Amino acid sequence: MLDWLKHYRRADLAGDIGAGIIVAMMMIPQGMAYALVAGLPPVAGLYASIAPPLLYALFGTSGAQSVGPMAIIALMTASALGPLAAPGSALYGMLAGQLALLSGAVLLACGLLRVGFLANFFSRPVMSGFTLGSSIAIALGQLDTLLGGAPLAPHGPSVLLGAGAIAFLLLARRYGAGLLRRLGLTPGAADIGARLAPMLLVLAAILLVTLLHLDQRGVRVIGAVPSGLPQPALPLADGYWQALGKPALLIGFMNFLIGMSGAQALALKRVDQRHEKLHTNRELVGIGLANVGSALSGGFPVTGSLSRSAVNFAAGARTQLAGVISALLLAGALVLPTGWLAPLPLPVLAATIIVAVLGMLDLGTLRTAWHYDRADALALVATGAGVLLLGVESGVVLGLVLSLGAMIWRESRPHIAVLGRIAGTEHFRNVERYPGETEPRLLLLRVDAGLFFGNLEAVNARVEDELEAHPQARHLVLVLSAVNAIDTSALFGLLELNGTLANRGVMLHLAEVKGPVLDRLRGSALLQALSGRLFLSTANAWDALARDGS
């Protein structure tokens, strides 16, 4: 907190206030809608939008981050709690808070232990597949509410309300900003105004239900929303800690990944970044404490919302004060009478959710991965399909395993090139790509990966193949310019290779060994046992060995 307060400028105040007001207006429909996705009363979404941004403002590092309910995390909450309690029950609400408490504790511990690097194991394709599957699952889950009943027995007025709401939101997203610009608004103001379409829709829907008494014609509404601030309480239900442990771990990491990716994207857009530098471990602490605050105030797991954060940024937010203002305004809205929210029709909220999550679909990553790396594309598709068919947790684990498996598979089959000298230079390149000069008695092999137990067999097999293809070779030079590490298994493998080659009359040499690797090799027996020499460069090895008649 002292960081952004220390550098706070009066010129930032207007932007922070304006952004805080706009995000608070967005949060009312979003918070209630995402609470429904999580299986909780709508007011829980408002509760989860007060304490979290206040705590994040104290400990987080992004001035544009809007912390609160988020659709995908709400789905993960429902997936974790569905088998344990009935949605809407008192136990379900307590477990939602307990889940937020556990996931917050996970993030807080990771931040204090400085292990934020663990989040890097979730690759971009896995995250995209997770978003793809979750978005479709959320949209499908809202169909009953949108139609006012079962899909085979839709309720007419509800269908009209829901379909009209979807059409309005899609048109506002596509044409709203352009229309507002033609009416005289600046491009920035027009974009923000278009994003406030859900709030305008909520007000219009409430007015329509009130005037036409649609609730008496079978249209379901959210009903009474309790007024007043949530009472602080520690949500502890005995006997559920173990059942909540694994989903809390997964939700915690997803909270961090989603929040951090949004914060990073917005930080890159800042023209003046002198006083905003994102710190991974402090973000873990900030989002972790935000979840603890949500748990203690009747909420559920929260994270930074990319859509709200983008609006916050576009509306002029410069510091965490914007989030503080949003939270205070929502708290004020709960203190005032909330009866005006009671006629809000559920089909309209369902439409808001469907349009929001379908806007998160990222097919561009799938197209890129398909053309660039089929293994990553497979991980993306498997993650999305797994979320839809097996559930959120199983889908993410499946994608993570496939992604890591693909990485291990690639590392276990490193690229190895036979090098030749480019005529008239000291440059050496792959002879399959360049017309390089070679010598029959000298074999230069460049290994383009770290040497470890997983690829040792593949490297030895390739060396054997190349020696058979070059029967006159008496010197084998391993060019290690791309090798960043050699583990113990690979060290023993090189010692064995050295002995085997010596028995065949072939000397083993090393060239271009990186400093950190060489430091470790000096503490081993390899350099002393090496039948050949250690060369600073491939050119040095060529000069010394190419004309060697031994």
In short, what is this structure?
The protein has 550 residues and is mainly α. It has helices at 2-6, 13-37, 42-47, 51-59, 71-81, 90-112, 124-141, 143-147, 156-182, 187-195, 197-212, 241-267, 280-296, 306-314, 321-335, 346-358, 363-372, 374-389, 392-411, 456-469, 488-503, 515-522, 526-529, 538-545; strands at residues 67-68, 303-304, 416-421, 428-430, 442-447, 475-479, 507-511, 534-535. It has 24 helices and eight strands.
Report on the architecture of this protein.
By secondary structure, the protein is mainly alpha-helical. It folds into 2 domains: 2-375, no CATH class; 416-545, Transcription Regulator spoIIAA (2-Layer Sandwich). Helices cover 60% and strands 6% of the residues. The chain contains 24 helices and 8 strands. The strands form 2 sheets. Strands 4-3-5-6-7-8 form a 6-stranded mixed beta sheet. It is elongated and about 100 Å long. 46% of the residues are buried. The model has no long low-confidence stretch (mean pLDDT 88).
Which descriptors would you attach to this protein?
Transcription Regulator spoIIAA; six-stranded mixed β-sheet; 550 residues; two-stranded antiparallel sheet; 24 helices; 2 domains; mainly alpha
**Spatial gap, N to C terminus:** 71 Å
Beta-strand content estimate: 5-15%
What summary fits the major beta sheet?
6 strands, mixed
Number of domains: 2
Total DSSP helices = 24
Give helix % range: 55-70%
Strand order of the largest sheet: 4-3-5-6-7-8
